[in-house]
Amino acid sequence: MTAAQTMFDEQAPSENGPVLRVSDLTVSFPSESGRVQAVRGLNYEVSAGEVLGIVGESGSGKSVSSLAVMGLLPQQARISGSIKFRDRELLGLSDDQLSKIRGKRISMVFQDPLSALTPVYTVGDQIAEALRAHGHSMSKQQAHNRAVELLDLVGIPNAANRAKAFPHEFSGGMRQRAVIAIAIANDPDLIIADEPTTALDVTVQAQVLEVLKTAQEVTGAGIVIITHDLGVVAGFADRLMVMYAGKAVETGQVDEIYAHPRMPYTLGLLGSIPRLDAEERQPLVPIEGQPPSLVDLPPGCPFAPRCPMVVDACREAEPPLSDVDGSEQHRAACIRANELIAEDPDAAEVFEVEAVEEAAIAKVPREQRPIVLSVNELVKHFPLTKGAVFKRRVGTVHAVDGVSFDIRAGETLGLVGESGCGKTTTLMEILGLDTLMGGDIAILGNLTTSLTKQSRREIRRDMQVVFQDPMASLDPRMPIGDVLAEPMQVHGYSKQKIASRIPELLDLVGLRAEHAERYPAEFSGGQRQRIGIARALALEPKLIVLDEPVSALDVSIQAGVINLLDELKAKLELAYLFVAHDLSVVRHIADRVAVMYLGKIVEIGEVDGVFGDAKHPYTQALLSAIPIPDPVAERSRERIILTGDLPSPANPPRGCRFHTRCFTFAALPEDKRQRCLDEEPVLAAHGDDQQAACHFPRARAVL
Amino acid sequence: MIGFLARRLVNYVILCLVATFLAYLLASLTFDPVAILMQRNPPPPEAAIAAKRLALHFDQPIPLRFVHWLGGVVHGDFGRTVTDHNVGDELLPRMGVSLRLFLVGVTVGVILGVILGVVSAIRQYKISDYAATVFSFVILSTPVFVIGPLLKTGALQVNDWLGTEYLKFTGEQTPGFDGSWLASLGDRLRYLIVPTLTIALQQIAYYSRYQRSAMLDVLGSDFLRTASAKGLTRRRVLFKHGLRTALIPMATLFAFGFGLLIVGGTFTEHIFGWYGMGDWLIVGVNTQDANVVATVTLFVAVLVLISGWLSDVLYAALDPRVRV
């Protein structure tokens, strides 16, 4: 216990009952097509010290309902029902009255830490401001001292100095810590965290969740955590509420819901997440279709159009939340919940997912397959310059510093690492087909440096790309047919060939031929990503480079796209270079994986080897940071929390680049440490197809 | 930071010289003051024209003439006009006239423009917002030579209504006014109101549009939500966090807007009979006088660059992210 913690009072035992009780909450907004019913009759309560997880896809009303609690919805929102905080009705209070409760009794942590702090004031001042907004007797000096204590509590090293820094001098993870410090400054009774870790890297996510736990321990507050990530809540929440189309569709204890979901939507959601701890590869459960529009919702269960268990009765009336499994704790809104109770089926059974057949080429041993892409000692440095007229070099960003790997036919290599590790730069160098700063890249045996203009164009045909953001990667003014035709026109396909190929491509990615006439704006995110994939397939490439292809999609949609990629790979014998930060997705889709840290590959090898028995401490930490959507397993895991953030690639640490954050290094005796400080480790073989760059590799169970 | 501002200042001095040289070059190449002389009837004797040419240094190449002129400027000598008056003698009074007119107009305009923009943004899509929008676009699309006379007419109405000629709009003070220091100031103020209003109206219209959109950007930002979630009242959130941040992009606009206004103020000065720098530029062109044109250009260049430098300082003061 630090001195800071003594400032929080003990949990007041006299105040029993829920801290927050929301009943019959409805929220609607005006829109051009009519009123959007964002929240439609929501009931929940949170007790002191309890963590309630609210899960749902985008547009399910989870954020709107919590902003309603804070009284932070825009003025045009129409709110009805009741929000009671400690028996005091919050709805209808004036802004002045609410501002006495906000930040003092209820506080909030938002999603994007990069924009959550005012850029023109120091972090310390912003925390002190929260203190002085409620503690009027507090002097400036007292508030400042307390702000420093709070920063220290949330794990900002050297807090007294850092309090004087401006938000732009903090990394994303540190800013989120500062926002949490503001949230707990006045010892609130309730903390609402709206997607607090979504914008962060996994290792930082693990740190921030840890800080949130500390925050809860010291304040004894009830916490509402809103997320779309079922992994995050599995280990953190006590109770769970699943939202769909503005309503709760299932509520209950976390363990119960994960073990026995009683609403097909929950079942589908759980089945749609790729699991890091999956023993064998199973197809994911995609939930077909998209969430309904909340303007003029038809009668009946809003999930009915996407539900595999739908019967006529579902379309007649919307089922209420009712007790299932004979327990008041667990409630679901489904008229067929009883059947789920009786059979307890698998998500894959209910959603009738078929396993993908393995491609013929996958049966050929790896060594005998041709190499599609080989990257050898690739180097890319960016100059750091200063001055506007006379630029002068003041440093070098070592974005990629000697990276080697190869991809063989019909194989997927996953390239993973935190933001800033150089994975995107590697990808851009490969796609550039240009002169390299160092090393070489060969595509289908052709060195990029020896290409003529003609052959470069030929090679482009064999290597295509799918981008991260499906919204931005399609020209909004081109109908889909033209989007797909463009690469073929460039490569001189005949008109007839193009005309016959477009319906073929659309069919391949699960869209219909008549979609060719429509514009991108008419498609959902998942469909657009399918169009992006169809465009990449147009020229029948051998290799597809995928840059975070599913990270912008909701989980249920993501599952469909991943299954599609799996299927296409088997059908067309494609090779993928799959860049992602989500290791669960990589585990699901990749055959081999390369882990990057500060411009170097620290571990590479076959997926089961690297994920099952990681040798490099960084890989272990990454894996350990990923939450598993299984409350029992998640709670029993021992998490490795990496300290600090990624060092600047402009000034990478000497010796082993990871030593500044390495727990193995920290545990080494003094005499052995010197080696990590002086000598940069090289990739050394461990087993058949696994290499790690560590002087002291140790096996460690992380799942 | 100090070093950065000092470097900028050096850059600006060079830019000033370049701008002035270009104006001098252009004026010298196109102007022919001797031609005017030759059109006199009866024509002046050959010797007088030759003497004039020599006095104007027409025997030297233009760059050399410029260096000669610049050498004088360094010592406070701005050369002589074609009619052989000292340019420097006229410079100070004219500068005073222009600055008096525009400093007041701009200050009023900036303050009211910011307020109007902020109010519009906060009350977006309310009647007041629409009214402010209509006002701004009407003003912005009306040339000053229409606004000026309209305001004069308005002032006449006010005077009629008051029964005395309270608002004055020709010149800058009553000729031959004699009175105490305070009375003299009051007299000048009466002459100042209408022209200042002309300038201020345009400035309000211009800045309020920018301030409105800057404020709207900030209003939707996450940090305002964080500030509200802390428990600050809406007013504090809007002003301490919102307006403070929304002023940053305006800093550049204020400074350069002011510098350039002086050049554009020619009409305003003309309409209200103020003999300022804008008016002088016209006179300079009419008399084909390169020295006057170069002097006015130098004045404007210095003003623009001082404004630019001030905007750097202001920007750095407002935004910690650019402090280096």
From TrEMBL, chain A:
Topology within the bilayer: Peripheral membrane protein
GO cellular component terms attached to this protein's record: plasma membrane
Record flagged with keyword Lyase: no
Domain of life: Bacteria
Matching InterPro entries: AAA+_ATPase, ABC_Ni/Peptide_Import, ABC_transporter-like_ATP-bd, ABC_transporter-like_CS, Oligopep_ABC_C, P-loop_NTPase
GO BP terms, alphabetized: peptide transport
An annotated Gene Ontology molecular function: ATP hydrolysis activity
One Pfam family per UniProt: oligo_HPY
Residues annotated as domain ABC transporter: 20-270, 384-623
Keywords: ATP-binding, Cell membrane, Membrane, Nucleotide-binding, Transport
PANTHER family per UniProt: DIPEPTIDE TRANSPORT ATP-BINDING PROTEIN DPPD, OLIGOPEPTIDE TRANSPORT ATP-BINDING PROTEIN APPD
Similarity comment: family membership: Belongs to the ABC transporter superfamily.
NCBIfam families: oligo_HPY (TIGR01727), PRK10419.1 (NF007739), PRK11308.1 (NF008453)
Name by which UniProt lists this protein: Peptide/nickel transport system ATP-binding protein
Automatic annotation (TrEMBL), chain B:
Chief place where the protein resides: membrane
Residues passing through the membrane, by range: 12-31, 99-119, 131-151, 189-207, 246-272, 292-318
PROSITE patterns for the chain: ABC_TM1 (PS50928)
Keyword S-adenosyl-L-methionine belongs to the record: no
GO biological process: transmembrane transport
Domain ABC transmembrane type-1, residue spans: 95-311
Signal peptide: none
Name of one Pfam family that matches: BPD_transp_1_N
Top-level taxon of the source organism: Bacteria
Gene3D superfamilies named among the record's database cross-references: MetI-like
SUPFAM superfamilies per UniProt: MetI-like
Protein name: Peptide/nickel transport system permease protein
